[in-house]
Amino acid sequence: MFLDLIVWLIVTSIIGIFSLPIFNRVSNNSNLSGYFISIPLFLIINGLISWLLFLLLENYIISNLISAALLISFSIYELYRNRFLYIKKLNIFIVGAILIALFQIIYLIYRSFNPDLIGTEKIMDFMMLSSVYNSSGGAVRDIWFSGSLNPYYYFGYWIYSSLLKLLFIDLYIGYNLLLSITFSLSIVVSGAISYNYLSNKINRINRIIFSSIAPLFIVFLSNFYMLFELFSKLPNLKNVLNKLLSIEGFDESSGFFYGSSWRSTRVINTFVDNISKDYTITEYPSFTFLLGDLHPHLISIPFILLTIFFISSIFIQNFSVKESIKNYFFVGVLIPINGFINIWDAPFLFLLTLISIFLVANKNNYSFKQSINLLLISFLGILASLIILSNFYFVSLSSQSEFPFINVHQFSSSIHHFLIVMGSLVFLSSIYLKNNIKISRKLILLNLLGATLLVLIIYFLKFFIIGFSQFNLLNFLLNYPVQFLIVILIIFSIFLVNFDKDKYPAFLLLSSLSILLIVENFRIIDLFNNRMNTIFKSYFQVWIIMALFAPVVISKFYINIKNKDKNLIIIFFTTIFLISSIQISSNIYYSTNKFNKKITLNSSDFIENAFPGSSETILWIKENTKKEDIIFYEVGSDYNITSFFSSFTGRPTPLGWPGHQKQWGRDIQEINQRIIDLENPIENLKKYEIKYYIVNNDIKIEKRGLVQVFENNKFKIYKVE
């Protein structure tokens, strides 16, 4: 394990040496920020080439070797051709490599106290990684639904598992290594983008300090929920706050704020007669990193940041029309690739592209026709990317969503819940807009009136669609201030486009606020029939944009040092830093079982304690069966440690977690039929082409074409003849 760790840290730290020359072909930025931003671009290109080669050559290792060899050869050529430039910048490679390794080590120290796959969807995430890692024959299969392709957006797993495969690193430690590289890249890429866009009026040291605020928002800061748990510790306040806040589980805190971290991600909800009507997930990045779910929304963070960098670069730099067209085509290509990593990111990034086109047109006084041309070239890039990724988008991808895919929802966020979750963005944007736009009081009043009427119209249209009988007065009264606040901030952000020559802050504000307004009124139609996933994925994306916006606000106030709102900024950051410190400390304390867990990076060590005899059984399966051999132990149970034999061996099984198969868009009748059939597995071994049947050692079965090939003190394995 130690050797694996050292090899991983060295290789991932020096990727920038080979990625920077490639990055400089599309963006002339050979400083430290370019070094960091170049790494996710290199990973995307390598992943895309190796995946396409895999479909053609049907061999995982050879495809990845060819892809890596091509890119490294090109980089070596570029390094040699521009050797005098890169020799002068040798310190960039050294510092960059050290920082990437350092942040990984910091995260891995934490994970070493909590490396297992217990709880939430970790065992499923491991299954996804295992299905990619064990791919063969030009197909990435769903190992929890034998006979089918993987229906999930698995490209992030492909990108990272390719590295593990080439370095011969086992998945058991690899799971935690992938979390660490995502953590490290999220820090350095967000910091690099912020540094790159901060004003040159600020000296280098202060630019570094201000740009570090972006990583803090991503890997450290939490929302404001903990503030209310702190208040609840005061005499006689807990019951009062519990009634006012209506947050499920608020009255259950114990010990050192036990469970507060989870409750902080389940804030937005509406209860009618004590029944939840608007359950949502309000997860933020620092929580996800500590939780340790290797989910697409976490894996995608560095790649979202990379794409935001390219989108915003178009209007920040003075590109010609021809250069803008080329760049928008490139951004269009990136959007479906990001969707392959995390499907929720595709519409989000397309919205950002639309806002970018609006800003470019405003900055350069483009005609309507020129703006439409930029939009069309983006569509062309998207189309080209969809053709390249057709095997995913039109063959393997499944969806639980149904036409018309988007609908409105009866309930929306209450103002107190919204401010707990998104209070940071509201505060920062309000302060920034207040100090950067100068408009008359009369115009302000007109905009306030306009916002009031617009929200009423939105409400009318919303209930016109779903029926006025579903109108809930209390929810309306609590949500109206939310929508009014978002709309008025959007209006003032549009004013900012004209008042401020620097379009970057307006881009970040318009992007985040537009997303919030959309999800307050629309939801993706899914199996849950609520806003849970819509809020979850969109708020997570907004948090990333907010992380990039925060350094802009602080840097502007630094330049305008006499600003009277400076103290408010200081109070704000002091408060959120303190409550985040308590939140994260509590989370770490309990997730590591008060630092009493065994120190290791092997994510499978826990399985032997949970299921004695399983480690030996898993090892036998890995060493004595083929990757395509179908195994069966039991039908999985969602969110529990089940179907682990399939996950840990990479062997397919007829049915893993039924509920998640439904979420991934599988045919519900087929899923239910498999459940029924597998209640009597002996009768259906042939039907599902099961090659190895695993049973508990105390279960006696009639062999009937079964040959026992393995036995220990807990499990038996029968081979189906």
Strand proportion, as a percent range, falls in: under 5%
Structural class, by secondary structure, is mainly alpha
Strand order of the largest sheet: 5-6-8-7
Share of helix, binned: 55-70%
Determine Rg (CA atoms, Å).
26 Å
Shape: globular
Through-space gap between termini = 38 Å
Tally the helices: what do you get?
32
Provide structural commentary:
- With 721 residues, this protein is mainly alpha-helical.
- The chain has 32 helices and eight strands.
- The strands form three sheets. The chain has a four-stranded mixed β-sheet, covered by helices on one side. It has a two-stranded antiparallel sheet with strand order 1-2. A two-stranded antiparallel ribbon has the order 3-4.
- α1 (2-23) packs across α2 (32-57) and α14 (285-291) runs parallel beside α26.
- The mean pLDDT is 92.
What are the defining features of this structure?
721 residues, globular, two-stranded antiparallel sheet, 8 strands, four-stranded mixed sheet, single chain, mainly alpha
